[in-house]
Predict the 3D structure of the following.
Amino acid sequence: MKSEISTPLIGYMKQLESEGITDIETIAEHLYDHHTRQIGLGLYSNGRYTQSGSDVQTNVISDANTPAKECILWCINHYLGLNRNQKIIDKVCQAVQEYGTGCGTSALSGGMSKLHKQVEQKLKDLVGKESVLLFPTGYTTNMGCLAALPGKNDLVIFDRESHASLIDGVKLSGKKWISFKHNDLEDLDKKLEKYNKKYENIFVVVESAYSMSGDLAPLKEITELKQKHKFLIYVDEAHTFGFYGKNGAGYCNELGITEQVDFIVATLSKATASIGGFVATKAKYIPLLQWRANTYTFQACLPPGDAAAVLGCLEEIENNPQLVESLHENNRYMREKLTHLGFDLGSSQSPIIPVFIEDKDKLLSFNRELFERGIFSVSIFYPVVKLSEGRIRFILSASHTKEQIDKTVDALYQLAIKHEIFDSAIYPVWQ
Ligand SMILES: Cc1ncc(COP(=O)(O)O)c(C=O)c1O
């Protein structure tokens, strides 16, 4: 029943279960003690919060008894920094004056307003599909759509690194599912070949960019498999919508494959700095989704202020292409520096940079010391990634400055040497 201090909470829970402890009250007590120990040693980065909301540099609070620390933030998905855009904030205030705060009910029960309809229309025109259905969150878009779509004799094949919302949706459907190796076309091809004749329809579920690894999916090649096999493609663009493709229409748009992808989904909480999600697809699927996706049928619409924020962000992305360019430039700049220094960034490409640190004890101390130097990012552990893996993730924003990137890279480098993160064979000679 002893745990290493670096054991992730859910990993520890599995350990307890494997030792025969199944009583949930006993498990909760063990986890509570473990969690308290991690907090006491300053090793728990997931409980930190900002003093006055997300920004690329702001005061961060670790616990109520410690003064706030000014930090550069690398853990927020506001890729374009639009949550701090004054024009958008003014529009949100105006919308709240006009439409009030919450919606009070679901879309099918009268919760939609003209503003929500404008959001759907804007997204439809932007993404280039026949119809769009707006959901209250990205998570419940996936849960609802994937629970609703597979038919009785269908199979879902999803990428092994898929987000929890996709996997929850597939499981909720109660239909057959299997996974394929992450971004592995050959494995997907083999599975399509093997199962094609056994099922009426196969849904292939992937993300355009994976949030824990920062790598892009081979979407063009996946759509090309349609020439060999019959299947439907469902792509979650959470980490590309707003900053890939024309006016931020997404990665499918950038690759010119919008037509071949059957369902394009994205969340509105990241580049578009709000809340909500949508699915863009053929008009024929809309009634089916409205009435079979419980998270649409039975969940209240996103608040009007948030709908106004989405419209404001999309307008800003369209009118100010420099914003997206700054994000990609920051990504190139930080990536080049880290790679040059010898950091292992895996196969990442998108504006998510994972720094892999295998040793969990080192990872926790490393992250705590980064925080002490005014750099805030969270450690990524099981169950978010495999039990054997650990990393610190840096999510770039167009609002990060070169100075903030330099300061962060410098701190990473100093700590990597201190904690002997680099393989001595490729020890960097920079500086
Ligand atoms: C790939 C992916 N899909 C869906 C979601 C859920 O989006 P939201 O948090 O806006 O509900 C996330 C959130 O991190 C995500 O990364």
